[in-house]
Structure prediction request, 162 residues.
Amino acid sequence: MSEREGSLGDAACLCSGEGESGRIGLLMGVCLFIVVSFLFLSATVTAVAIQDRRLLACADRLSVATAGMIDAHAYYGGTSRLEVRVSPQAAWGAATRALQMLEGSVCDVGAGVSIVVVEQSMGQVRVGVRAQAILPIVPGALQGVSAPLLRRESAAKIVVDP
Prediction:
């Protein structure tokens, strides 16, 4: 066998693909891992974004419910000008009651919603809430470590027609 025939024999062996069978499987495994990772990441980001929007809707509902608690003494007190105030105790109580009523619907977000702040100023009430997001496909032990803590605030104006 000549030198030329030996080199053609090696080329013929490479063209048949006998030595590449393991490489294709490895390449398909890497591609599958990339696709699954992308799907997992997009599902997680979408779930957190949806929970964030739901938490904002919950904060809106709580601020509107709290804005309805007007201090009766300031309203009916006989002052010459119409003064509308929300007492801090009544505002916090109204927000807590509204949260309890809405826990099964609007305020069913993540691992549970808690009220962070209820502040009132002249003619406005601001309510802040927070919730621990729940990530899909993540094991329970890793939820507390990897899930973000969502926080939203909403304000409602108190308008009285004289």
About this structure: The CA atoms of residues 2 and 8 lie 10 Å apart. The first helix runs from residue 3 to 15. The first strand starts at residue 113 and ends at 121.
